[in-house]
């Protein structure tokens, strides 16, 4: 009797392990050769971050990245959830927290002069570009705070997989944006749609 119970326990253990391996999110990335890309592999997110000089008038920023299909995550490894979607954000790193979070948010939220001219292009298969979105940003909507960094929303207009190009012209040389210990970057990450 004990041998039968032991055999049943071993079979259930093997079956449970096999079921877990079959249902857990994959850590394999079939698009490893496309770089850079915001990615969600298994339980880990990999974001793209590129530094910019937000306060240097006349400077331009060009950047190409990929949006690739992502595996649909599963809740409790059983129920499919929505696919992640890339968001383009402005990240403000506040090194010493000397500048005050509210002060930074107010500066970018209530600005009266244009800060950037933002353009998002989709690169087609024949390498021509299609303009997806163009806007002159006077102020930025606050998005979230994470690890001493403030995030401000730019766009989430990426609806198709493929290669994209961001083009930004800096339009402002405001001293409020030149505060010490503040660094600015364009931040692209995968977020789940609700």
Strand segment tally: 13
- In quaternary terms, these chains amount to single chain
Query: What is the makeup of the main sheet?
Result: 5 strands, antiparallel
Query: From N to C, what is the helix and strand string?
Result: HEEEEEEEHEEEEEE
What's the mean pLDDT score? 78
Structural domain tally: 1
The SS-based structural class is alpha+beta
Low-confidence stretches: none
> Which percent range describes the beta-strand content?
35-45%
| Number of helical elements | 2
N-to-C CA distance: 52 Å
Structural Rg = 22 Å
> What is the third-level CATH name, the topology?
Jelly Rolls
**Biggest sheet: strand arrangement:** 3-13-7-11-10
Q: How would the global form be characterised? A: elongated
Describe the structure.
The structure is a single chain. With 194 residues, the protein is α+β, with helices and mostly antiparallel strands. It has one domain (29-192): Sandwich (Jelly Rolls), CATH 2.60.120. The protein is 16% helix and 43% strand. The chain contains two helices and 13 strands, in the order H-E-E-E-E-E-E-E-H-E-E-E-E-E-E. The protein has helices at residues 2-23, 101-109, and strands at 39-41, 44-46, 48-52, 60-67, 74-75, 79-80, 84-94, 116-123, 129-137, 141-146, 149-155, 162-170, 182-192. Strands 3-13-7-11-10 form a five-stranded antiparallel sheet, with helices on one face. The protein has a four-stranded antiparallel sheet with strand order 4-12-8-9, with no helix packed on it. Strand 1 and strand 2 (44-46) form a beta hairpin. The model has no long low-confidence stretch (mean pLDDT 78).
């Amino acid at each position: 009797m004990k041998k039968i119970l032991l055999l049943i326990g071993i079979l259930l253990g093997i079956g449970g392990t096999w079921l877990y391996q079959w249902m857990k999110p994959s850590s394999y990335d079939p698009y490893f050769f496309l770089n850079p890309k915001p990615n969600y592999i298994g339980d880990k997110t990999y974001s793209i971050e590129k530094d910019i000089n937000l306060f240097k008038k006349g400077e331009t920023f060009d950047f190409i990245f990929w949006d690739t299909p992502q595996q649909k995550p599963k809740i409790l490894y059983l129920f499919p959830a929505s696919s992640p979607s890339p968001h383009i954000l402005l990240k403000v790193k506040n090194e010493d927290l000397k500048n005050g979070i509210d002060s930074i948010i107010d500066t970018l939220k209530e600005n009266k002069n244009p800060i950037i001219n933002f353009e998002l292009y989709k690169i087609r298969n024949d390498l021509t570009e299609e303009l997806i979105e163009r806007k002159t940003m006077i102020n930025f909507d606050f998005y979230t705070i994470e690890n001493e960094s403030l995030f401000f929303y730019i766009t989430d207009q990426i609806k198709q997989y493929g290669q994209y190009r961001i083009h930004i012209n800096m339009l402002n040389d405001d001293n409020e944006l030149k505060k010490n210990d503040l660094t600015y970057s364009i931040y692209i990450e995968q977020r789940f749609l609700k």
